[in-house]
Specification:
The structure holds 2 protein chains of 2 kinds. By secondary structure, chain A is an alpha/beta fold. Helix content of chain A is 45%, strand content 18%. Chain A has a 6-stranded mixed sheet, with helices on both faces. Chain A is globular and about 65 Å long. Chain B is built from 10 helices and no strands. The chains are: A alpha/beta, B mainly alpha. At the A-B interface, helix 1, helix 4, helix 5 and strand 7 of A face helix 1 and helix 9 of B.
Chain lengths: 313, 250
């Protein structure tokens, strides 16, 4: 009896592992994941305008909105995702741990930073034991920038690690606006602009101050196996992003028309944010070397990563 | 016996891993999991996180049990309290701890208080139910003893009520522990570092975001071991020294 149960168990495992091999064959379908925020605006336009479908004839394009990079990595590992858009640090962490993926494009630079409602907080060292900082997750670009800033100001990069509450940007904004125990929120557009519009809310530290220069906020990664199989699809995606970015910068009014519906925001307000100082949509990638250096020095990365290895060309 | 099955499980795990169908980011080797466990134990990380979780559970179990005692004793004194308590149990007992999380965050924010509220909630209602059953099942005759032997209320409580309802108390503690342990781990995974310490749920979550798959399994392993130690060794030990020895359960 015992042997029979064990045999059945083994058989079950065998079947599931075989099934996972069988499901690998899915041709001419591309699944793309993005996250919350205005940084993904070009992707939003591409999604509703079906720009990628127009370029990739006969392909199915599927868009997913995931709450954080951990979810993107897990979806890729379980073979449910080909392309993911994320901040540079989580991409590096995945690469460091053995994710077989590469970055094929930048998407934007953006004004991001730490916002507080508390009167007495002017700089990082003003935070007390009881203050809580909301951000998407440890290891996210917001978190790494916070550790960069706290290394500079306080001399201890992990100073805030136990005062972090993980929240998606919309939840974090709601928590901050309620002026309770979440005293600060490290966030990105449009949330950072909405928060700073509130009376008494102010920026404690900006991403550029933390980093000491400008940097790419969001980039696009592709799973190696997908890129090897469909280099033409990756190239098409790259050129569609290029066209869309060009469209946004040359026709911001039209872009805002499309986007204000998607983001459910006032058109004027959206155009204002889209052309905000520091909000730059570009495929160039900057700041990767400084992220690698800082993250290696502070043990967020275990291996020596060479910048030339991580880009898909 | 459990150990035997555990070894079988490990063997199957290794076979799947060696078969190479899955990325090591999904199926890390047993060696990596053990190594992650050892390194986390050496730098004390997993130990402190665990201690913090168990500390919360212990405080909540104690507070929940005392509160349950007071409520049940109260319900035996007054009929109104009794019907109130019965209604409260039927309202709140079916609510999983993690389901009340959004409401609790609204009231108390994301600090350690809300973790306590959720864990005490998971402890209190099963405890009340069990104590109530235990108390009600004391036969009428025993109250005659009290009169004949002129026992006061305190002697009655320690001499008759407590030993008689001990099997129910233990059963209540077992259920409460299981429930609160689950609620706590879920809450920690959602909250982040509550109270600035984290806990074992947060340990697993941070392993997830840093993509340390071996660390995730190491955390799960620790939870299993704690479950076995508490539920099987600790409770079995108490049972054997008390209710089993007294022949109340076989």
């Amino acid at each position: 009896m015992k042997y029979r149960t064990a045999a059945a168990f083994l058989l079950l495992i065998l079947i599931t592992s075989l099934l996972s091999c069988a499901s690998e064959e899915k041709d001419k379908k591309i699944i793309i994941a993005e996250q919350y925020g205005l940084a993904y605006a070009p992707l939003q336009i591409m999604r509703v305008e079906k720009s990628l479908e127009k370029k990739l004839h006969g392909w199915t394009v599927e868009w997913k909105k995931l709450a954080n990079t951990a979810a993107i990595r897990e979806a890729m590992l379980s073979d449910n995702l080909d392309i993911g858009f994320m901040g540079l640090p989580p991409f590096l962490i995945g690469y460091d741990r053995g994710m077989e993926w590469k970055m094929f494009t930048g998407l934007c630079r953006a004004p991001i930073g730490l916002v507080t409602w508390k009167e007495n907080i002017r700089k990082l060292s003003d935070f007390t034991e009881n203050d809580r900082i909301a951000l998407p997750q440890p290891g996210s670009i917001q978190h790494i920038l916070l550790t960069m800033a706290s290394e500079k100001e306080i001399g201890n990069p992990s100073f805030f690690d136990n005062r972090i509450v993980t929240m998606s940007h919309p939840d974090g904004m709601n928590a901050l606006l309620s002026r309770k125990d979440i005293t600060a929120h490290f966030t990105s557009p449009p949330f950072i602009m909405k928060e700073l519009k509130q009376p008494g809310f102010r920026l404690v530290v900006s991403g550029e101050e933390a980093m000491g220069g400008n940097f790419t906020f969001i980039g696009g990664t592709v799973k190696n196996s997908f890129a090897e199989k469909h280099p033409d699809a990756v190239a098409a995606l790259y050129s569609v992003i290029k066209d869309t970015i060009h469209f946004i910068s040359t026709k911001p009014e039209e872009a805002s028309d499309i986007l204000s519906e998607i983001y459910r925001m006032d058109r004027e307000e959206l155009e204002n944010y889209l052309t905000w100082d520091g909000m730059v949509f570009t495929q160039d990638i900057s700041g990767m070397d400084r992220f690698i250096l800082f993250m290696k020095n502070n043990s967020y990365l275990k291996n020596d990563i060479r910048e030339e290895d991580i880009y898909y060309r | 016996m459990k150990f035997f099955w555990f070894l079988i499980f490990l063997a199957v795990w290794e076979i799947i891993r060696i078969s190479g169908n899955f990325s090591p980011l999904i199926f890390p080797s047993v060696k990596d999991v053990v190594a992650s466990l050892v390194s986390s134990s050496i730098d004390g990380e997993i130990f402190f996180q665990l201690l913090f979780s168990l500390f919360i559970i212990f405080i909540s179990l104690a507070a929940g049990t005392v509160a349950a005692f007071i409520l049940v004793l109260g319900s035996h004194v007054s009929g109104i309290l009794d019907s109130l308590l019965k209604s409260l149990v039927s309202f709140f007992h079916p609510l999983p701890g993690i389901a009340i999380l959004p409401a609790v965050i609204l009231w108390t924010g994301t600090g350690i208080e809300s973790i306590f509220i959720i864990v005490i909630h998971s402890v209190l209602w099963p405890m009340v139910t069990n104590l109530h059953t235990g108390y009600s099942s004391i036969p009428e005759n025993y109250s005659f003893f009290r009169k004949n032997y002129r026992m006061n209320h305190f002697q009655m409580f320690t001499g008759i009520t407590l030993p008689y309802s001990l099997p129910y108390i233990l059963a209540g503690l077992k259920i409460s522990f299981a429930r609160s342990w689950r609620a706590l781990i879920s809450a920690e995974m959602i909250f982040g570092a509550a109270g600035g310490k984290g806990g074992i749920g947060w340990y697993i979550f941070s392993k997830r975001v840093y993509m340390d798959t071996a660390g995730i399994y190491a955390g799960l392993l620790v939870i299993i071991v704690i479950g076995i130690v508490i539920e099987e060794l600790f409770f079995t030990c108490i049972e054997q020294k008390t209710v089993r020895k007294w022949g109340m359960i076989s």
